[in-house]
């Protein structure tokens, strides 16, 4: 239906999470129907880049979220072999790919401040998904939201992941260093001078 009509039908499921002390209640939306894309006159998709992405981000989220997203992006620039940009009409995204681990992106960050964990998108097999899932589950505050490693993707709103940005970066750093196969190691430009990534949230960028 979504492919052959000028209107779209979506189903939104709200997953409710409550902290153990009952002080925090979060609803995480899961949208069904986004898989099918179509071209509609007047709705032109665009290719995002660093400048347009952060300009859009700064207009949609608070400064703390902007700083956390920028920290993820700086990590991606330092470690990823490829960063691809989305083509959304109203929302930008970037997708870091670590070829020694997988040809697909481990995670996606949108200009709404969302983080998408691409468990089901990874082609490197169960081992890659398990490493990513297990590392994130070790973060107690994040564990309730990282439910099923077999899901196509898990979407974390900024209020869930931003307070734990540095620990999440630590997981991404560890997973990105675990080569999945000898063939994938050949596809990657290895840099022996790279030191373990040590994120510092709020750190100013050098000019």
In angstroms, what is the radius of gyration?
18 Å
Helical amount among residues, as a percent range? 25-40%
The structure class reads alpha+beta
Q: Could you tell me the number of beta strands?
A: 7
In DSSP terms (H or I, runs of 4 or more residues), the helix count works out at 6
The biggest sheet, with number of strands, parallel, antiparallel or mixed sense and barrel status, is: 5 strands, antiparallel
Task: Describe the oligomeric state of these chains in a short phrase.
Answer: single chain
Quickly count the domains: 1
Q: Calculate the mean pLDDT score and round it.
A: 78
Low-confidence runs (pLDDT<50, min 5 residues)? 180-197, 202-207
Shape: globular
Strand order of the largest sheet: 3-4-5-6-7
User: SSE order, as H and E?
Assistant: EEHHEEEEHEHHH
Q: Could you give the distance between the termini?
A: 49 Å
Strand content: 15-25%
Key terms for this structure?
disordered C terminus, two-stranded antiparallel ribbon, alpha+beta, five-stranded antiparallel sheet, globular, 207 residues, single chain
């Amino acid at each position: 239906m979504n492919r052959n009509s000028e209107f779209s039908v979506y189903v939104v499921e709200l997953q409710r999470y409550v902290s153990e002390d009952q002080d925090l209640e979060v609803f995480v939306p899961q949208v069904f129907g986004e898989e099918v894309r179509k071209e509609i006159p007047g709705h032109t998709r665009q290719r995002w880049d660093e400048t347009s992405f952060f300009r859009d981000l700064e207009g949609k989220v608070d400064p703390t979220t902007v700083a956390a997203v920028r920290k993820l992006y700086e990590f991606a620039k330092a470690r990823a072999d490829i960063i691809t940009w989305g083509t959304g009409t109203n929302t930008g995204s970037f997708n870091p790919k670590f070829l020694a681990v997988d040809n697909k992106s481990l995670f996606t960050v949108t200009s709404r401040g969302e983080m998408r964990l691409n468990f089901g998108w990874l082609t490197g097999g169960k081992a890659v998904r398990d490493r990513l899932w297990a590392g994130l589950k070790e973060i107690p505050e994040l564990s309730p939201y990282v439910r099923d490693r077999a899901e196509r993707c898990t979407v974390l709103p900024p209020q869930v992941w931003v307070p734990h940005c540095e620990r999440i970066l630590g997981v991404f750093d560890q997973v990105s260093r675990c080569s999945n196969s000898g063939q994938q190691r050949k596809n990657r430009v290895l840099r022996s001078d790279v030191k373990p990534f040590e994120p510092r949230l709020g750190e100013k960028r050098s000019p």
